[in-house]
């Protein structure tokens, strides 16, 4: 297996004149990009960074972030990207935990870096902003350098992502070059990408989806079109102007895209392949996207930071809710809830916990200095995902939620995802999230938080559930109308905040 640095140099040799990256006026071919990347590698040497050192980046998606990613792969430096919204204490945790040797930031993260006690003691590289104590990225890339030569093997560390912490500090997920490249190649194969594809690079480069999109484009001489942060108008403008051929987004961003007023007049005909991951997609959104784009391929990709691909369904609209079958580098099982062994299999149609084989080519080796997390999630050569699901009679996997999200009401296990998909088909429902709220009689009562686009009553929605075929014990007993649902920076629904009462109640009913 090639290391990623050698893989990229091979891409340059194969497609030197192909457009590689686009970002707000910057347009670089692979040959031009390689020269720029080589300049960054030379700057690492001047700073004193060595193979195996970690460098923390606090950047939005931009050419600099993508360039730094590839420079790290060639130099053997372990890129450790974190959310550009991180506060100074969060930044300090990641710097200390990873033992970082340098920090790269820009204007949106400059305040956190300035307040960080650890960042001030490290070499700092500033992208597009002034800092008297920092090295200017613009100066680095302006200096000519000899073509950089890859310095590590496929067994060395490539990147360390941090999982989003919900109740505790985030966990570091270090990944080797071989696992990263295997994930990138599988992404190409499973999404049927062709040479010269163009993707909208909006999923953050501190997130597993963004990183693998970047790698996949390099494998096929494709173009990574940067969008620093999601904005529907800008996304539609870039799709049209750059003739983007594929989209790989979380469902929330798709929702915002097709419900935008500008969507009807935008030219999105160049987009022929849709892919989504990060969360389940409701039946209603799936149908709307399929009708709007009429794509040649519509992929549901189910995976994680730890193991990129679990399963793939390459025709998501044909079987709504299905995550399909194991990816080309993986084997998955469903074991009984609270199983202690990978051999304790759930029966077909029985809901249990989803596990994935650790021997897969895309897998990580374990968490960064967290033996407690390893003991909880890694057993018998399998990764226990914490996700719930079942396998149907066709052998297709259905993901129903998180073990922690399961609603136990009156002794029955209820999955929020099934109820959300049902309610999403009601014409007045714009968004919906279902959780269990404490109840003296039932333990938990099924509660639906609904963002509505037209007048509808709780009675109307309850009747819709009754006639939809949803089992009686799964019907929401409470409905709460809201102006917005709480979500993470990458668009994941944060159910825990709904349970905690941290949401925006509806200010006024729709006209």
Secondary structure: helix percent: 25-40%
CATH class of the domain at 406-505: Alpha Beta
Largest beta-sheet characterization: 10 strands, mixed
Q: How many DSSP E strands?
A: 27
Domain AMP-dependent synthetase/ligase: 11-368
Protein name: 2-furoate---CoA ligase
Pfam family, one: AMP-binding_C
GO biological process, one term: fatty acid metabolic process
Describe the structure.
The protein has 511 residues and is α/β, with parallel strands linked by helices. The chain has a domain at 406-505: ANL, C-terminal domain (GMP Synthetase, Chain A, domain 3), CATH 3.30.300. The chain is built from 15 helices and 27 strands. Strands 12, 13, 14, 15, 16, 17, 18, 19, 20 and 21 form a ten-stranded mixed β-sheet that branches. Helix 5 (110-115) links the parallel strand 5 (100-106) and strand 6. It is globular, with a radius of gyration of 23 Å. The termini are far apart. Residues 418-492 form the AMP-binding enzyme C-terminal domain. Keywords: Ligase.
């Amino acid at each position: 297996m090639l290391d990623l640095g050698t893989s990229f140099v091979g891409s340059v040799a194969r497609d030197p004149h192909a457009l590689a990256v686009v970002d707000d006026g910057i347009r670089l071919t692979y040959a031009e990009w390689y020269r720029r990347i080589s300049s960054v590698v030379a700057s690492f040497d001047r700073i004193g960074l060595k193979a195996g050192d970690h460098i923390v980046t606090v950047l939005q998606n931009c050419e600099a972030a993508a360039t730094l990613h590839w420079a790290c792969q060639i130099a053997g430096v372990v890129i450790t990207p974190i959310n550009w919204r991180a506060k100074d204490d969060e930044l300090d945790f990641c710097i200390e935990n990873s033992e970082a040797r340098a920090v790269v930031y820009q204007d949106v993260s400059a305040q956190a870096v300035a307040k960080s006690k650890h960042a001030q003691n490290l070499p700092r590289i500033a992208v597009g902003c002034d800092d008297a104590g920092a090295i200017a990225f613009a100066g680095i890339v302006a200096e000519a350098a000899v073509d950089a030569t890859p310095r590590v093997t496929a067994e060395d560390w490539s990147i360390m992502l941090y999982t989003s912490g919900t109740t505790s500090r985030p966990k570091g997920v270090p990944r080797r070059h071989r696992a990263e490249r295997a994930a990138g190649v599988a992404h190409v194969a499973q999404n049927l990408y062709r040479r010269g594809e163009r993707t909208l690079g909006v999923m953050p480069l501190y997130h597993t989806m963004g990183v693998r999109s970047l790698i996949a484009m390099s494998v096929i001489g494709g173009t990574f079109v940067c969008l620093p942060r999601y904005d529907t108008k800008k996304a539609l403008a870039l799709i049209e102007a750059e003739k983007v051929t594929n989209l790989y987004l979380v469902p929330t961003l798709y929702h915002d895209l097709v419900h935008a007023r500008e969507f009807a007049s935008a030219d999105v005909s160049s987009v022929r392949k849709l892919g989504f991951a990060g969360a389940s997609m409701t039946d209603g959104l799936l149908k709307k996207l399929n009708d709007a784009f009429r794509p040649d391929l519509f992929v549901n990709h189910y995976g994680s930071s730890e193991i990129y691909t679990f399963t793939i369904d390459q025709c998501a609209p044909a079987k709504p809710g299905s995550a399909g079958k194991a990816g080309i580098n993986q084997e998955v099982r469903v074991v009984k809830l609270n199983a202690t062994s990978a051999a304790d299999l759930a029966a077909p149609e029985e809901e249990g916990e989803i596990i994935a084989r650790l021997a897969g080519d895309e897998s990580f080796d374990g968490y960064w200095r967290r033996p407690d997390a390893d003991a909880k999630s890694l057993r018998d050569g399998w990764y226990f995902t914490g996700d719930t699901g079942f396998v149907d009679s066709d052998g297709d996997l259905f993901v129903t939620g998180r073990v922690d999200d399961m609603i136990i009401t009156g002794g029955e296990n209820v999955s929020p995802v099934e109820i959300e998909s049902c309610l999403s088909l009601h014409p007045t429902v714009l968004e919906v999230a279902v959780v269990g709220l404490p109840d003296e009689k039932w333990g938990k009562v099924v509660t639906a938080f609904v963002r509505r686009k037209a007048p509808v009553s709780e009675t109307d929605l309850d009747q819709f559930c009754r006639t939809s075929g949803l089992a009686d014990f799964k019907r929401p007993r409470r409905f709460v109308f809201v102006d917005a649902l709480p979500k993470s920076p990458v668009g994941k629904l944060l159910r825990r905040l709904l349970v905690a009462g941290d949401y925006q109640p509806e200010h006024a009913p729709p006209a």
